[in-house]
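Lecture 7 notes. Example A: sequence first, then its structure tokens.
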Amino acid sequence: MRTEFEVDPDGALGRALGAARRAVDRADAGRVDAAYETVFELADDVLREAVALDHVAALLALGAVTAAERRCAEYAEPLGHDHVGLRLLRAEVRAAAGDQAGAGADVTAVRAALVGGGALDAEDHARLLRLEGLVAADRGDLPLAERKLTGARAAFLRLDHERGVAGVDGDLLALAVRQGVASAVSDAVAGPPPRTTAEYLLRALALRRELRYGEACRTLQDCLERTRVDPALRFPVLAELVTTAWLTRRPELAARLRPLLVEAAAQAPDPVAARQEADRLFPDGPAGPPGSPRFGRRVEYARRLVLAGRVAEAEELLVELRDQANGDHDAAIWHLTAGEHEWARHRGSGDAAFLDEAVKHWEAAAARASSTALTEVREYALRLLGRALFKLGDDDRADACWVEAHRLEERVARLQGDELRARMLLSAADEHDERIRAAHDAVTDDRRHAVAGIAVAVEHARGATILDVLRSDRPAPPRDLPRVSDLDGAWRWVGGVTRDLPRSQVVWMLHATPDRVHHVVLGRRTIRHWSTPVDRQRLVEAVTGLKAWWGADVLDLGVHTGEFDRCLDRIAGLLGLAPLAAELPPGVDRIAVVAGGVLSDVPFAALVLPDAGGRRLGDRFALSDLPCLSARRPLRRRSRSRRGDRALVVRPPGALPSAAGGGARGEVLAEHLTTAAGLRAELARRPYHRVRIDSHGAHDRDDPDRSWLQLRPAGPAGRLRSDDLRRLDLSRCGTFVLGACESGMANRVGRDEPVGLVRAALEAGAAAVVAARWVADDAVAATVLDRFEHYTRYLPRDVALKRAQDDVVRHRVVVQAHDEAEDAWKPLSDQHHPARWSCWTVYGDPGWQTSAGPVRRALRRTTDHWRRRAAHR
């Protein structure tokens, strides 16, 4: 709005007005405000009305909403509180600040004045139509909003008012973007770079509708950094930023923004409504009434009533809102909330009829939320639908819903940058996570016998393709797990897989869902479960931090600075190990660990048990690693057919003397035969029960199938890669020892199945593999592996490895490392540190390697005992 003044340009008023107009052209809101204040003071009573209106309009055009609101309040006294032109301006100012309730009050007052005999010129009438359209849009009355805005556009066109037409076009575009109209969203994204706060907000909303959350977040950050955001507009910018923080699964960012949002709410035109809006953006916000009549806000209030247990109030509000849902968005969120209401009624009464109603509502919500802009609504509706179907016993349909929900989350994640993509995928629950969550809910509903369902759900989450490899020598049906909701079948399965466990051994299954780590301990007639709340992202960060110290060039630094230990302590704290010892049956000193995902990289032997006087898991228990629980029996059968003491040692040229150690037991392969072909020929010529390769090695993180062991000749031509290892004949090999660095490292594919040298050896026929998770010190490696082989003469593999590691930790042997600088052998001062010994793990069957019976094993143990005593005298 611009009023033309006929004043003497050389007079004081003319000069002041010229300064104000020049400030407008420079977009200097501060100088505009000061200059117009001077113009108003110099103007006579005839001009003051026009100056006041022009002053407010100029500030509004520049986005100085707070200053414009303040000037409206100041000019209300001289112009009159019922001044129609000023009320229209104030309504426009409030609408620009997001205060649609205040704008609606002003519009209502203007209409009332017109009924009482007032009049508006054509331009003011067009402005009034536009404002009525914006207020109707805020109420959710989209047909009325479109009708009013279209009428305003036509009125501005008749006046040839380009700025008015452009403003209404922007309103119609924003309305279409809020509705998720694809063409409007594309136009908003492809338009010119934003300049004003309102344009930044529209661009961010359009990007959010296209699921490009990372770009939306950057757009809002640019708005805060590159523009002078008016205090009245700071709240909607921060509110949208908090929304994108939740969508990108960054609760810590939302938490950091919360005090800024509360501060901005206090500066908003309607502080009470803004504070209610701020509370709505956080899960722990109070279930207060909405500050806006908008449909979405009222539905959200109904949802908070449900969460607060005020089910009757929620039902009354949902009934009231049922016929007000306009379009797919409103219908989808109404059905979503109505389903949650029926779910709450079911949980309170146990009546399955409410559960059936919840299913109908969530099916309707998923169907209405079919557009890209409603992907998040559809994903959530499918998750809830899966949970209801699972409770009704329809596991197959539940799985289908969860698979589709996870596919949608993966689709959204792919649209983000690398960092956000990884975070969002970690926070996305797949169908296995949902099964475990559902099984856990059954237990926490005081159905303690449902704990068997958790064990089955965790086993479902582990990959099973390894079973085809293990059963190739003895055909058997594929893994046939019961449905998680079939508790009788779950108990039969648990009893079947544990009945032949040694009394001294349990299986410890672990699985990390996005928000918890679940532990299941299975033994003979024993099943225990506990879980620890933890963000999977934090767990990944902790394990990644530990793995950063696994390289040859940084391991010593991590040990000496204490960072390695701090990483271990952080992981142990997140896992919640305190209940472990209490949950174990008496006499248990062996644990077979079944861990997937990020947990498969955890060196459990090195973790300190809480309240155990600093003792580590490896100090108390003999640990081994299983790919899945169903693999235990096939591996055990394979192991029984491969028992014996005939050993082959492969020591190619270039292996360090300390790595050879001189203590390896068995036939040493001739040096000229230490090639891939020579090893293959030797294994084909004569079966060996134990094979050990002492060499250098490396894990290829990009392609685990290209991980290698260095044989003869030196260099790439002599590398035994994973594919080569698979083709070896290890059909009579019980234990395959990889005396090389990083030999136990693996990449996970499919359902967390590790691919690397260990997997290749199992596929080649070995029953168990001993390998290192990270770079191993040569001297410690030689000592641990030599003594492991010695102890396997009368101990199971896992106990033999523990005993070998105990010897290193407790200095039963003094490890001497070669100091190249002085060409001398010196004791390793920190040989007891877990970084030196806990990298070694038994993968596969932890049972007997020797074919000696109980009597011969006892004689060997006794002889060994007396030899040790004699050596220490």
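Example B, a different protein, same format:
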Amino acid sequence: MQEGLRLLIQLVLEFAPVVAELVQKRSQDSLALNKYEPIEAIPELIKALNPSNKKSNSIEDFEQERIFQQQLVADNYQTRLRIAAQERETALQLPEVNKIIDSWPLRLYPSQILDHANYGRTPLKIFIAPPQVHFDQFDDKRDERISQIELMLAEGLRDFLNKHYSLHSQVRPTELLAGAWDSKRFHSESSMKALFGMLKTEPILILESENDGDYLNFRIAYWGLGQGNYYYKTIARLPYREILQESAKRRALEWKQIRDELLALGEDLEEINQIGKENIVNLAILEKVEKWNEKGIDISKLSLQYQVNRQDFEKLCQVLITYHCLVAGWIADAYHLVNCGVPPLLPELLPSLLEDTFDLQSLQVIASGYKQVYQALENERCYWIPELALQLAQSLSHLSDAYGGKLRSWANEQLNYSVNTWLQLRQISLQDSTNPLQAMQSAVSVKDEEYVKKLREYFVAVGDSQSLADVEEILNCVANLKHQVTLQHIVLSHTLTGHSEKVTSVVISPDSESLVSGCADKTIKVWNLKTGKLIRTLTEDLGEISSVAISSDGHFLAVGSCQHPRSNVKVWNLNSRKLLHTLLGHQKPVNCLTISPDGQILASGSNKIKIWNLHKGDACGGLCQRICTLWHSSAVNAAAISPDGTILASGSSDNKIRLWNPRTGDPLRTLNGHSGGVKSVIISPDGEILFSGSTDKTIKIWHLATGKVLHNLTEHSEEVRSLAISPDGEILFSGSADKTIKIWHLRTGELLQTITEHSEGINSITISPDGQFLASASSDKTIKIWQIN
């Protein structure tokens, strides 16, 4: 087996379990990892959004979960960096520092290594402890040879790292500190313990080669961020004398061929031998060995001294360089994968590093080693596994034509692991279908397109026509989904510019004919929705308007004021334009209003919620009857009533959503999950799902009956102020302080469109009951009406 590959096999067998153990320990230590929302919640959302269709798909935006996991990894990484920074400062102040420095194995002081430059990510630092090769014929040049080996080894590893793991890379930064090892002072366990004691805050890899008779013991020492101990072990014994002698013998055989060719041309043998130098001696030994072997003489006990030269040392150096590159690449892959979620690179580099024939069994060990690390990551980063395993399968598939069917079967093993994990994440069972690729068709979404295309590349590479046909069917499903969501596009119909301050709230009448807007300029305006023409303006002692609402029968218009002490709610008859009620009692600004779908109940929110019966009181303008008052600890920013009128949801600045019985005032449940104040809440048309927007820039989707978070939408860059859902429950609209409106396809979980026409933040959005129009109100003093096709 080729020496370089044998080393890599040994490394994988030894080090993969270590990486797996590190991942598991990280998972146990990291409280952040316990914040994952259970994947079991997804089927509940599917059922809730489409109860009539047993095979329906709902929000399956697994890419968002992957991003969420990436953020958790990034947060965990930053936490470890802060801890490392504190430990770094402590290390520099230890009283025994001077004593340690007296026997320090490096030419660099700890302060030089601990001093961080402005790297995006903490790089893996690599030190080389080069071998002190001692060979009989070169006693007089011993120091020179050691220096040459160190320089050539550093140059070879430097070239490899600069190409693939550059210090300046934003993906896999790796720093080679060549020449730092002071090999004449001390080594082995004592040096590693001293280094770890001072540098444990830094991710370190030390590649050490130590002379042991005719062998070099090749060892690695490694520790990563936040690691409580270091890994140090001999992973290979390199027969360096044998390598040198084999190189000398090969040169002698090459010389023999040249000598014979020159003799055939009539050249003088004595003159030829003068050119041959040590090749003459080595060839003579080879010819004797051949003769003795023919006579059955056991030459294994003979000490045959071949003469070696610089070329042989260069060959040894090349073997050492290959060893160091393989180990540095594998461990750099493990470090960047575990800490930063970067997929491995070494599988793609193996063909160029190992140019000779591959040992297929050894390649299987390498693949299994990567898989072992991936399996250790399953609990922490399950959404990355399909792509990581597929990448490894693709790397192996590139070699399958040259190295036969066994390699292809091992590549297929990684491919199956990738696809099966993909299906498990989406809770797709293979009971109804024995073909995993066919099972994928029922769960694929538009965001899976890149993954499916990589599957296609794989099957093209291995020549699997049947699987390729299945993948084409999956891509057809993706194309159909893209076509479906493309149908839900939106175009600007009118821009209304009658207000003189920020427009705070808009609502569309039940007949989808009129639009009512409330503004900080203390006016209410009524517009023709389809033409955009102003119908009338209401200005009767309103104060600054915070919200407007229309009853389901179109008779009542409720207006909330946020201008204290005028904080109140006024109710008009929308048809007669007559003021019916002025509802008093709020001591703080009224921030939100909502009317129940049956038109019976009005809820108004300030720091508390008041529930009113719209149909009780004097029809000529008397007070509505107050049903109850609900208490919040902070300002209530949003409220919504379920279609059956049994649940009132209120969102507050205390980051909480509370559920109430609006008729009795009884509290039902408190929903915790947002890290910022809740600015908007709406309930789906079927009454099963709650949507909330927050100052934490996210939209959360809740199962109303259980209070579970079903999904998180995270595309907005500022607080989410307003939400609206289409009458069929398929499309979600969100308006944000980031000046955008985003449109989401709930069944596929896709972000369909981002609208950027407003020049200031979006304060309110509403959709017409017929689903044909969307209106948006902004701090840019305009209202925009959008037609949905």
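Note on Example B: The chain has 19 helices and 33 strands. Residues 372 and 680 are 45 Å apart (CA to CA).
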